[in-house]
Specification:
Keywords: Membrane, Transmembrane, Transmembrane helix
Number of helices: 1
Order of helices and strands: EEEEEEEEEEEEEEHEEEEEEEEEEEEEE
Radius of gyration: 65 Å
Distance between the termini: 183 Å
InterPro entries: CarboxyPept-like_regulatory, PEGA
Protein name: PEGA domain-containing protein
Pfam family, one: PEGA
Organism: Candidatus Methanophagaceae archaeon ANME-1 ERB6
Shape: rod-shaped
Structural class: mainly beta
Number of strands: 28
């Protein structure tokens, strides 16, 4: 007994290699074969099956399985198997895109990905609908989507895939913040009143601060004396010293030819302290003798008498003096007199 056969594509007639062929007789498996590169298969057996029924089952990936029943009328049976391509069941996914007012959105760009891999892209139609068919292998998996349209916020999300899945996406418009409206006349009046109040407060504070600041006015006779406040030089008299803190302070006046003037005064907050000083001339005396005596004495060009001579009321400082006597050389010198000092000058005149 011999079984011969071919396996071809029912639509194209192309031979199909690798098809699985199972042969049965009376529920008993006779043989399991595989079609060759030409789509042919062959089986021979010494058993006799005349009058028996042959059952042939053919399977191939991507095709609908087929079962053929043939009676053994002769020792040889020839089978021509034509397999019909299997229609792959797709997963249907539908997106319904609308704005917040439930208006359908046309032209929304949609991209889909599963586990980081892109599985589809598309654009919504005039009714805001986007449909796509996906591989059945994706059933039960989560698909991530991004929906993008100008003037709207990017919409992102995820959907669990079933055989038929429908999902609605609501997209929000991008809103621009409006600038604040200009204040009304009443608001302007309120603002002006607030500003005026602030200005008044500032002026009041300035007046208070001004009134609370202290000063010292210093004058001297004669004027032009150097003024020192707590050891710090402030200028010449007459002088007003401002910004003086309340409390005890020391004023010192100094002028060449006069005794220093020192005074400690108490300054009150916001008050003006006045100090007037009569400077006392710093004086000393000079006692002049000569050998021989009877010489004329002049001090700073002014005649003072004959030696021996005591000159009183001499101001402190440097002074020029001159002694002259007939038959003798003039004697000219300079001396320094301290306040309260009794200066002594002894001169020996030389003959001409």
């Amino acid at each position: 007994m011999r079984v011969l056969g071919t396996v071809k594509d029912a639509a194209t007639g192309v031979p199909l290699p690798g098809a699985k062929i199972s042969l049965y007789v009376r529920e008993d498996e006779l043989a399991v074969l595989q079609s060759d590169s030409k789509g042919e298969f062959r089986h021979e057996s010494e058993s006799q099956y005349l009058g028996e029924i042959l059952i042939c089952k053919v399977e191939k990936a991507g095709y609908e399985p087929q079962k053929v029943i043939q009676e053994f009328e002769e020792d040889e049976v020839t089978l021509a198997i034509k397999l019909v391509p299997r229609k792959e069941e797709k997963i249907g996914l539908t997106f319904n895109l609308k704005d917040e007012k439930r208006t359908p959105l046309k032209g929304v760009n949609i991209s889909l990905e599963v586990s980081g891999e892109e599985v589809g892209v598309g654009i919504s139609d005039k009714d805001g609908i986007f449909k796509i068919s996906l591989s059945p292998d994706l059933e039960g998996k989560t698909i991530n989507y991004d929906a993008e349209l100008g003037g709207f916020v990017l919409a992102s999300g995820a959907v669990l895939l079933k055989k038929e899945t429908s999902h609605e996406i609501t997209m929000k418009k991008i809103t621009m913040k409006k600038p604040p409206a200009p204040p009304s006349n009443r608001k302007w009046l309120i603002i002006a009143a607030v500003v005026a109040g602030i200005v008044i407060v500032i002026l009041a504070v300035m007046i208070i601060l001004s009134s609370s600041s202290s000063s010292i006015y210093v004058a001297s006779s004669p004027s032009g004396a150097s003024v020192y406040l707590d050891g710090s030089y402030e200028g010449k008299t007459p002088k007003t010293i401002t910004g003086v803190s309340a409390g005890s302070h020391t004023i010192k006046l100094s002028k060449s030819g006069y005794k220093d003037y020192t005074r400690t005064t108490s300054v009150k907050a916001g008050k003006r302290t006045i100090i007037k000083a009569n400077l006392r001339q710093a004086i000393g005396s000079i006692s002049v003798t000569s050998s021989p005596s009877g010489a004329s004495v002049s001090l700073d060009g002014s005649p003072k008498g004959m030696t021996p001579k005591t000159i009183t009321g001499v101001s402190a400082g440097y002074h020029n003096f001159k002694l002259s006597k007939s038959g003798y050389n003039n004697y000219v010198g300079t001396t320094y007199v301290k306040a309260g000092e009794k200066k002594r000058i002894d001169v020996i005149l030389t003959k001409r």
